[in-house]
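Notes from the 1:1 (GR / supervisor)

We went over the backlog. Supervisor wanted to see one worked example end to end before approving the batch request, so GR pasted a single chain during the call. The sequence is below; no edits were made to it. Supervisor asked that the structure be written out right there so they could see what the output format looks like.
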Amino acid sequence: MRKLCIAAIAVFGLSFGLQAQEVSFGAKAGVNLASIDGDSNNTDMKVGFHVGGVAEIMFNDKLGVQPEILYSSQGGKEDIGDDNFKYNFDYINVPVMVKYFVIEGLSVETGPQIGYLVNAKAKNDSDSIDLDNIKDIDFGINFGAGYKMDSGILFSVRYNLGIININDGGNDVKNKVIQFSVGYMF
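Structure output shown during the call:
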């Protein structure tokens, strides 16, 4: 957790060190559609959520950087025999998005994301098991688009493509998450 906090402070510090014209802060929350992609099998999508803080650092009218700190509920679900399993992975994610405004208010964005695992459980109808084979750190690349109204209300959609194996042994397993967000910039 200490490494994640240091990384987040460094990202925010570096962002402010660049010659920004305008800096604004806000909050956002939304729905996750998460799944796990693996060598042996893929899970179905699981509905989760995310919530957190965001900063927008604009360098000019078209280009900016948007670092965020989000709590994100991810994972997936699958049927094994007669059992329905739900994999619940909770992360503190730190995406750093480069935003390009195509027209006023409408942006496309991309950037890396590092996540720190807070909790990993597998649940079925009768049991809940802590998973100790999920790595503490996840890394992915995000692609998305957003719209920010003059009032400060923002809407965004984003796809997180996990690029490292989160399984600490055995099969190659990666997170895949689609996020729909609503927020407000102060």
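Supervisor's comment: The mean pLDDT is 88.
Batch request approved.
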